[in-house]
Structure formats: C-alpha cells, structure tokens
Amino acid sequence: xxxxxxxxxxxxxxxxxxxxxxxxxxxxxxxxxxxxxxxxxxxxxxxxxxxxxxxxxxxxxxxxxxxxxxxxxxxxxxxxxxxxxxxxxxxxxxxxxxxxxxxxxxxxxxxxxxxxxxxxxxxxxxxxxxxxxxxxxxxxxxxxxxxxxxxxxxxxxxxxxxxxxxxxxxxxxxxxxxxxxxxxxxxxxxxxxxxxxxxxxxxxxxxxxxxxxxxxxxxxxxxxxxxxxxxxxxxxxxxxxxxxxxxxxxxxxxxxxxxxxxxxxxxxxxxxxxxxxxxxxxxxxxxxxxxxxxxxxxxxxxxxxx
Amino acid sequence: xxxxxxxxxxxxxxxxxxxxxxxxxxxxxxxxxxxxxxxxxxxxxxxxxxxxxxxxxxxxxxxxxxxxxxxxxxxxxxxxxxxxxxxxxxxxxxxxxxxxxxxxxxxxxxxxxxxxxxxxxxxxxxxxxxxxxxxxxxxxxxxxxxxxxxxxxxxxxxxxxxxxxxxxxxxxxxxxxxxxxxxxxxxxxxxxxxxxxxxxxxxxxxxxxxxxxxxxxxxxxxxxxxxxxxxxxxxxxxxxxxxxxxxxxxxxxxxxxxxxxxxxxxxxxxxxxxxxxxxxxxxxxxxxxxxxxx
Lengths: 306, 294
Description:
The structure holds 2 protein chains of 2 kinds.
Chain A: H1 2-55, H2 61-65, H3 78-109, H4 114-128, H5 131-145, H6 152-176, H7 180-188, H8 193-222, H9 225-228, H10 253-262, H11 269-303
Chain B: H1 2-43, H2 45-48, H3 54-59, E1 63-64, E2 69-70, H4 73-104, H5 107-122, H6 125-144, H7 151-175, H8 179-187, H9 192-203, H10 205-221, H11 224-230, H12 247-254, H13 263-293
Antiparallel strand pairs in B: 1-2
C-alpha cells in the first residue's frame, strides 16, 4: 500500500517535472524566435547607420549634381542620378500598361484554361531569370540585333522584362482584394464586363497597386547587373551629360557604384562609392515610405475607407 | 435607337479590350520563349561552333579560353558553395523569423517590424556588395588574417539577401495552415512550441520547401553582391577563406572584354545558359512540390 502511494507520487513528480521541462523549452523557443526577429531589425538599423556614417561626408551639392570625372578626384554623380530616374520612368511607361493588362486578363477574364496556365508559368519563369542573364539577353537582342547600342532604351526594355512578373502579381493581388459584390452590383446595373472593371473594380484596386508600383520602382532604381551590358557603363557626352536621347548610353547610379570600384581609374573611389551607396539607400527608404503613404491615401480617396 | 447604338459601341469596346488584354498576356509567353531561344543558341555555340566538349565545360577546372581551355568547374562549384552556405544559414533563420511573424508576433510588433523586411528586399544588390566590401571583408580579414575575400564573406552577404524571400514565403505557408490544427494540438495539452514544431511546421512543410527553393533561385543568380566580396580567383576554392569565383561573377567580370565570337564570349554565354537552366529547373521543382501538397 505504502509502496503504491510512493510509486504514484514519483509518477506525479515525474509528470510535473516533464511539464515544467516542456514549459521551459517552450519559453526558450519563444525567446529564441523573438531574438532572431529582433536581430534582423537591429541588423538593418546597423546598416543604415553605418551607411550614413560612411557616406555622409561625401554628400554635397557638387557631388549630387556635378559631372563624373574619369581620371582625377572630385567627380560628382549628377548624370548618373538623372539616368537612374530616366531609365526608371522609361521602364514604368512600358511595364505598367503591360502588367496591368495581363493582370486584369488573368484575374477577371480567364480563371482556367491552357492559355492562362502558360502565361502564369511564363511569368513565374521570367521572375526567376537571374538579372545578369536577363542583361545578356538584352545585350543580344536590343544592343546587338536591333542595333540600339548601349542605351537607356535597351536598359529600360531589359528592366521591363525583369519586373513585369512582379507588377503583374501586384495587379492580380490588388484585383483579388476587391469584393465580388462590387462586380455584381455593376453587372446588375447593366454594366458590361469592361465597364465593370474600369469603373467599379479598378478604382478600389488603385491604392494597393500604387504601393506595389512604388516598391518595384525602388527595385528598378537600384538594379545593376541587368544594366551593365545594356545601358552601359559611361554617361553620354555633350548636353552637359543630362541627356534625354534614349539611344545614348546611360550609366545609372547603381552601375556607377560597381563600375568605379571594379574598373575605373579615379583615385577617390571610396568617396564616390560611399556617397553613391548612401544615395541609393536613402532612395530605397524614400520609395518605401512613399509607397505606404500614397497607397493609403489613394485608397481613402477613391473608395472612401481606410 | 440610341440605346442600340450605345450597346453596339459597348460591345465593340468589350471585344477590343479583350484583344488588348490577351495580347499583353501573350507578351509574357513570347518574352520567355525568345529568352530561352536566344540563350540556347548563343549558349551552345561553344559546343556546336567551337566543337568543345560539354564534359570539359562541366568538369574541368582549367579556365583559360585564350589557350583553348574552357573548364567552368571552378565557377560552378563556387556558385554551388555560396548558395549552399546561404541556404544553410539564411534558410533556417528565415523560416524562424517567418514563424515568428505568423505565430508569435503581436499585431503591433509585426506591423512595426514588417517594413524592415521590405526595406531589406529593396536595398540594391550592389549596395549589399558595398556593405560587404567595407564592413564584412575588413572584419573577416582582421579576425582570421586572411584577405577577407572569399566564400565566407559572399555566403554571409547572400544569407542576408535571401532572408526576406524566405521570411515572407514561410510566413505565408504558416498562415494557410488551418486553425483547427492549432486548436486541436493546444487542446491536447501541447505547448505553443510543441504545436509549432510537431504540428504546424510539418503541415506547412511544402510551403516552406517552396520558400527555400525560391531562396536558392535568388542566391544562385545573385551577381554584384558576391562579385564585390568573392575575390574573383578562377580556381576551385580551397576553403571558406580563400578567394573564389561564381558563374555570375565571372560573367559580369569578363563579358565587357570578350571579343565577338571568341571562345571566351561563347564560354560566358554557356555559363549564362547553364544559370538559366538551373533557374528553370528550380521553377519546375517548385511546381512539383506545390502539386504534391495539393
């Protein structure tokens, strides 16, 4: 009898111990997951501070607007910043309409079928093509076969191919977020499918789409590998190097950062590099903030809710 | 009468719209087909025009196209090593942070931390490379006495770069696990960690598999971030701390100086084609994993 009590007591103690052990493991794992997530955020904060520490000294009006120099110290990155924006705009002019149209087609018109499957698979494949490989394709087709040479246009078309899938996905997700009741109401009032999409569905999708477009713009702004052999590694001469001709070579800021380090002969590589890296980082931060703010405001204005 | 005309006009607009939308969708198919076609032609000239052996390309470590040697093994291994490193470090870490966002993070914490992950996606790869060059390489140099350039530096940079991809995809994978599984497990007395480890992770395994595969796809194609910190020696790396090369870094380094139609240019296009085949293979793998789940 006494023995039986003792046995059941040990059993209980064991169970209590293991429960305590399991709770300890649970707490430990919870702590570890929190620590890992915080570590990522701290790492990012460290990067941003470090880039400011490195690059702040390089930033001046002359650096941001001045012409680059090829052999001597003291060059600026004005034309490179201009080219980055110029190629970004050219790219968006091509990417947005195509991605929008394809996204509408896949989301609103064709929910099943071989064509849809093929388009979807093509988009997924395009999205995984490494950007340097896309750059070589641009070199073969636009620079060489079409004889555009190293040019802003060749770079922009290459970037269009690279970013179409992401933007199509953004469109699809934005459209998927519009309640079916909007479509039904418009159809019930006698709207055709196209009228329904343009007047009832798209306005509520504009907010999230804008967020997506601005985020992708940040990526286009900083793209490098796909541009080295399409838009080129030098800026056009003449016109003070702020050059709107899409057939002239157009080195962007991100390409400049890489190229000055790897190939160029100027003595103040570090100053140019640190400054360029900081400008790129600040632009990415700006694009991220703008994406959030504008997307939210547009949603409020066009749909009347937050 | 006007009603009929208006209806006719609406009908025409409808048809026109459909043609335009279908054309834009078709553009994706044409683009990827052209891309594969062009790279397949240029990427096989090494074997069809120059009559080099595909085995030499894949398995010989000697790369000196000006002397007729076109072995790309050093670059292939370099790419595989840095990718494996990135997945070994960034994979589990990314899944853990994804699990944190899906299961643990209070709403306010998540909405404060998510933008950080999005900024990490947006930072250009060349800026990661620059950070590696100015922060990581000197750090490794001072602690180990090596040059600082090599697989270790490239692997760390890449781990960080694939992190956002793995985080957001594994978070999505956790979120689609039905709540009934969570509730069932907790009701049986499991702790939260036991629920995550024994129930949710296995249930989300195919989604997490996809997250890791897409992380690999991102890592193997990454170019400038690793080119700046690899050291770019065209040899099979002797260890984590010795300089190495990858397929991507070799292409970006030497394409500019490659003469049209030269053995060097053809070799570089073959490497690009190989990268494309790997990327396509990974996409097919994603499809298979996703189908198995469904």
